[in-house]
Amino acid sequence: MGSQTVPKLPVVDLTKEDLKPGTSSWLGTSNEVLRALEEYGCFVAVYDKLPLKLHNSMLDSLEGLFDLPAETKFHNTANEEGITYYGAASEGFLFENATTLEGTQRFTNVLWPSTGNDTFCETTLLFSKKLEELVEMVMRMVFESYGLDKYYYESQIASSTYHMALAKIQPPKMNEKKGIGSHSDKSILSIVDQNHVTSLEIQTKDGRWITFEPSPSHLVVMAGEAFMAWSNGRIHCPSHVHGIITTTPPQENGKEEVNYSAALLSYMKGMVQPPDKLVDDEHPLLFKPFSNLGFLKYWIQEVAKNPKCSLTDYCGV
Model pTM? Predict the structure, then answer.
C-alpha cells in the first residue's frame, strides 16, 4: 500500500508589492485566503510588515514576564477584571484591549506595580498593532470575496476588540507531551507568532494533524468559532493544540528548549450574525444571533464542567 500524503498548511504570500485592494494581485490573494479558511480554517501568512527585530523583542520579553515570582503572577492578577493568568502544564496570560495603550499599560502595571516596565509595554503595543493590521487585511479580503462592500467591512472593523494571549510551554519528560490541550478559539480571527520551538498542531476536517514549522516571517492566521458562525458554516474552525513532544535528552549545557508564543485574538463587540446573502436554501441559518464576548464568558464558565460545550449549545438553531 502507498503511504498516505502528509497534509500541509496552506501558505499565502502577503508580501507582494502590488497587493492593494482592487488589483488583480489582491483579488487572487483574497481567493487564496478564502479557500484556505473554508477548507482548513487557517493558513500560514508570509508577512513582512512585522519586523524581525520586533518579532524577536516580543518573544524575548516573555522570558522576563514568565520569570516573575509565581506569587506575583497569581496574586497580582487574581482580582483583575480582564486579565487572566493560568499555570499548570503550561503558563499563560490573557488580557483585554491589547491594541490600546490603556490596555497594555494596565497589564504591565499589574505585573510590575512598583517599577513598571515601559520597554515591555511599548514592545507589546507595537506588536499588537502590527498584528491588528493583518487581521484587518484578512477580514477585508474575506468580506470582499463574499461580495460585501467596504461599508460593511468598516462597520465590522469598528466593532472589533482585541485580546492578547501570551504563553510559555516547558518541555516535558522524554516522549511525553505537555501544553495546552485540544481546543478551538472563540474569536473571529487569531494571529499566532512563536519562537523557533515547534509546538502548534492543527487538525484537518478529516481528523489528521498538521504541525506548524515556525519561522520569523511566518504567522498562523486561524478562524475562531465566531467567524465560522458569521459565515454560516462556510469558514471552518479548526481544533488545535499547543504542546512540545520531547524525544531527545536536554542539551549538553542542561538547558531545555522552551516554547514562547504571542497571539492576538479579535472579537466582535456587538452581535454576531451572518449577512443575509450567506443564508439561503442551501445554507440554512445555523446559529441565532449571539454576543461574541458573551459566548466567550459562557465557555470559560462551562468548560470545566463540560469540556465539550460548544457554540451549538449556546445558540444553535
Answer: 0.92
